[in-house]
Amino acid sequence: MSQVGDTPSRAFDLDGQVVLVTGSSTGIGEAIARLTAAHGAKVVVNSVRSTEAGQRLAAELDDAMYVQGDVSLPDDVDRLVEETVARWGRIDHLVNNAGTTQVIPHHDFDALEPDVWRRILDVNVVGTFLMSRAALAHLGENGGSITNITSIAGLRQVGSSIPYAVSKAALNHLTKLMANQVGPKIRVNAVAPGLIKTPWTADWDEAHARVAETAPLKRSGVGHDVAVACLGLMVSEYTTGQVLAVDGGVTLRG
Ligand SMILES: NC(=O)c1ccc[n+]([C@@H]2O[C@H](COP(=O)([O-])OP(=O)(O)OC[C@H]3O[C@@H](n4cnc5c(N)ncnc54)[C@H](OP(=O)(O)O)[C@@H]3O)[C@@H](O)[C@H]2O)c1
Asked: If I label 133, which of 20, 76, 173, 227 is the partner at 20 to 30 A Cα–Cα?
């Protein structure tokens, strides 16, 4: 824990700290893994299917390992945390970035079968909770943080589908509910991205064009934009229970 008067330039130092980023083989998670590694962290890279990409990324970073696992499966969650602790003996920061969706127009209620709801809520909400609970036992010792990657779909009537938007609204609230319970050593915050250029949104040309036209900052985000906000929250030792929109200002316009 830093003290009043610490040199400001050292505020982002993660030397020796262990950061576990779920869903980090590509996109936003990859950017968070790269940025935290660049600030001295030991990083756990995770994904479910894209194992080669995850292994490649871990090999590229200074001190990282790849662990395959689905955050919605309790056994995988336990293994992810156990392998991290077995390797480095601690976890300092958990970033719950893994997420899934299905693109369904909001008016199409008939397409919202129970299986669609269950898969999205299972990964996005239950997975985030399971990861957080499993990591909590290790986060407290040195003071630590959980950062949930949510979405402005959890704040506005937008997003790739209603179940996705509902899952992200649930995560924004889970962030506050957990933050209210796990202090003083552990903080829980969320970053709510707007439209970010990742493999997930690679063919969303119309949406990218709309954001470039309407957002005050006149462009979609990139993974690094989210990673910087995430790193900021990780090291903000007097901030908990907050949801930070990283959206180029698009929510200012409706
Ligand atoms: N891109 C955007 O515009 C945007 C906006 C707002 C919020 N977000 C949020 O940001 C996060 C990352 O999105 P992205 O755009 O970077 O997506 P992405 O490029 O598709 O990456 C998703 C990552 O999550 C992993 N993943 C998916 N399901 C998983 C599970 N059950 N367990 C563990 N890992 C899993 C994927 O691994 P596999 O390849 O192995 O499946 C991949 O590594 C998501 O939570 C998303 O909701 C994105």
From this structure: 227
Distance (angstroms) between ligand 1 centre and the Cα of 6 equals 36
Q: pLDDT tens-digit profile of 59-109?
A: 999 999 999 999 999 999 999 999 999 999 999 999 999 999 999 999 999
- How far is it, in rounded angstroms, from Cα 230 to Cα 33? 11
Give the torsion sign (CA, 59, 186, 121, 220): negative
Which one from 130, 161, 164, 186 is the annotated catalytic residue? 164
Domain annotation for the chain: domains and CATH numbers = 12-246 (3.40.50.720)
CB of 95 sitting under 6 A from ligand 1: no
Q: Looking at the predicted structure, is the pLDDT value of residue 140 above 90?
A: no
Ligand 1 probe mutation, 200, 201, 222, 244, most atoms within 8 A of CB: 200
Question: Which residue, by CA, sits nearest to atom 39 of ligand 1?
Answer: 50
Active site residue 164: yes
Residue whose CA is at the smallest distance from ligand 1 atom 23: 23
pLDDT band at 6 (very low <50, low <70, confident <90, very high): low
Residue nearest to atom 24 of ligand 1 (CA): 23
By percentage, how much of the chain surpasses pLDDT 70? 96
The pairs formed by 207-216 with CB atoms below 8 angstroms and a separation of 24 or more are: 211/248, 211/250, 214/250, 214/253, 215/247, 215/248, 215/249, 215/250, 215/253, 216/248, 216/249, 216/250, 216/252, 216/253
Measured in angstroms, how far is the CA atom of residue 62 from the centroid of ligand 1?
Answer: 23
Q: Which atom of ligand 1 lies at the shortest distance from residue 168's CA?
A: 47
